[in-house]
Specification:
The chain is α+β, with helices and mostly antiparallel strands. It contains ten helices and nine strands. The protein has two domains: 134 residues, no CATH class; 145 residues, no CATH class. α3 packs antiparallel against α4 and α5 crosses α6.
Length: 367
């Protein structure tokens, strides 16, 4: 039996276009909110045809490998948030259809919770997000690509997308929380990727200066011993760096004339590694992120926001940070995170589809 329901998806963006073509059992319908009056509203109605039969879970042992702490409607909102680069969250069901003969459905409120977040006030930590007009056409395509992912990849992407989505919502209220979520989003798919296995390569990705110093010492055995011993300590950083290098992000389409992040591969990965270091210090020793990296970027009207804090140094309270220790603003790192995740999503959906096509033709997927 198929049951159908409509869910209110809240956002501070405006969605251009009418109903989007079906993507499997999902249909996205824009409520056409006025773009000249940004506010937090139900900008999208998600219609879901639920074909999944209700099952009673087994209670004899713990089985939580697929736990997401999301309802199915919010899972779709999470993927839509990543695909469109906007704040998007489900407020629950607003209409249910009892059966196929119930063409109009019945409005409901028992499952509906209005969005708890308020519209951000300028200056914004993530400038340009509130009130953004977003074309709606690409959502169905990305939902199709999600169905092409292998189960493990799909689960990792959903968890990473949830971190990304939550970072967008929390950025104005608590930028430090947003930094933590964004780093975790990349780390989630980096663990799934598990691309680095060679200890020496792992050591080099963590700290190339250390690797070069050991190579210069001319003791190959010492290099291998140090690399293997340091492996458990440096592997997480190496995975993170490897992910960014493999799925390298494109720069923003609009960039400021000054205070840009150097987008060459080596420089950008080094800057992202600094962010990873700040995340680790925040979690393990309680050291807050530098204050300038949590502040709204200073922007003149009509100008593109700077990608990193300006000046030779910044201060807050009794603390100071040199420019070299302030690699980027939060909105820049949010762009990097989304680009890497989208590149990963695209690559793995394509490779899975290609492998399935090859297998169906009677050929080895390894050829």
């Amino acid at each position: 039996m198929v049951t159908t329901a409509e869910f209110a998806l809240y956002s501070d963006a405006s969605f251009a276009g009418g109903p989007v073509g079906d993507s499997g059992p999902y249909r996205f319908i824009s409520t056409l909110p006025a773009p000249f009056r940004p506010r937090m509203r139900a900008g999208v109605v998600l219609r879901v045809d639920d074909h999944v039969p209700r099952r009673t879970p087994k209670m004899d042992a713990t089985d939580a490998e697929g736990w997401l702490a999301l309802r199915p409607d919010d899972e779709i909102a999470v993927l839509g948030s990543l695909a469109l680069g906007v704040r998007l969250r489900s407020g629950g069901a607003v209409r249910v259809f009892e059966d196929d003969s119930d063409l109009r459905g019945r409005p409901v409120e028992y499952d509906h919770e209005p969005c708890p977040f308020r519209l951000p006030e300028p200056p914004e930590v993530l400038p340009g997000l509130a009130g953004r007009v977003v074309p709606f056409e690409g959502v169905a395509e990305w939902m199709g690509r999600f169905r092409d992912l292998a189960p493990g990849h799909a689960l990792a992407l959903m968890r990473a997308a949830r971190h990304y989505r939550d970072a967008l919502w929390w950025a104005e209220e608590d930028p430090e929380i947003a930094w933590l979520w964004l780093v975790s989003a990349l780390e989630t798919v980096a663990v799934e990727e598990q691309a680095i296995t060679d200890p020496v390569e792992t050591l080099g990705l963590w700290n190339e200066k250390v690797r070069k110093a050991l190579v210069a010492a001319g003791d190959e055995d010492l290099l291998c011993v140090v690399a293997k011993a340091a492996g458990p300590l440096v592997r997480s950083t190496a995975r993170y760096r490897s992910l960014i290098e493999r799925y390298f992000p494109a720069p923003p389409s609009r960039r400021p004339e000054t205070d840009r992040v150097l987008w060459e591969r080596e420089n950008l990965i080094a800057a992202a590694t600094q962010v990873y270091g700040y995340r680790s210090k925040k979690l393990h020793v309680g050291l807050p992120f530098p204050s300038p990296m949590c502040a709204a970027p200073f922007t003149f009207t009509g100008q593109t926001p700077p990608e990193r804090p300006p000046g030779l140094a910044s201060a807050a309270g009794s603390s100071t940070w040199s420019a070299a220790d302030l690699p980027m603003h939060l909105h820049t790192y949010a762009h990097i995170t989304r680009e890497v995740l989208m590149n990963w999503w695209r690559a793995h959906a394509t490779s899975t589809t290609r492998a399935a096509d090859t297998k169906s033709n009677g050929q080895s997927s390894l050829e």
